[in-house]
Design brief:
Layout (H helix, E strand, L loop, with lengths): L2 E8 L1 H5 L3 H10 L3 E8 L3 H7 L9 H8 L4 E9 L1 H9 L12 H5 L8 E3 L3 H11 L9
Length: about 140
């Protein structure tokens, strides 16, 4: 097992429904530790950078509209195999396929309205953490 830090973005559905605390409690209850947390509004440039893999797709304007409707909460979590652990707690990206007991299975709606984005690899986590946090915004516990 490796000690890792991963990125989670609480999407607008989590923010507008007041689910951030409940979901954060699940992560902490699983033994993950907060290294950084902040609220921000997704600007066009940051959104296009973060979603560069789908920015040219015809559905991207819908993603952009959804992700900019409220501020988001960026969270850096650390723990043993944090990337895999977070993704397991969340369940599949499509909330309709996520089992009850998983965060998305309990609180999500579909593939876009699914509570959180989470890094899918340690490499992605490193790039995403760098995108949303400066070094002096990440703390050890």
């Amino acid at each position: 097992m490796a000690l890792e830090t991963t990125l989670i973005l609480f999407k607008p559905d989590a923010v507008s429904k007041g689910l951030v605390g409940q979901v954060l409690a699940r992560f902490e209850g699983a033994g993950l530790k907060i290294r950084g947390i902040k609220m921000l509004q997704f600007g066009d440039a940051l959104l296009r950078e973060h979603y560069s893999h789908i920015a040219s797709k015809p559905f991207f304007p819908d993603v952009q509209k959804f992700m900019q409707q409220t501020p988001i909460v960026a969270l850096a979590l650390a723990g043993e195999d944090a990337v895999a652990q977070v993704r397991s707690l969340l369940g599949p990206t499509d909330s309709k396929k996520a089992p009850k007991g998983s965060i998305r299975g309990d609180l999500g709606i579909d593939v876009m309205v699914n509570v959180c984005h989470a890094s899918d690899s340690t490499e992605a986590a490193a790039a995403e953490l760098n995108r949303f946090f400066r070094d002096d915004e990440l703390f050890s516990r």
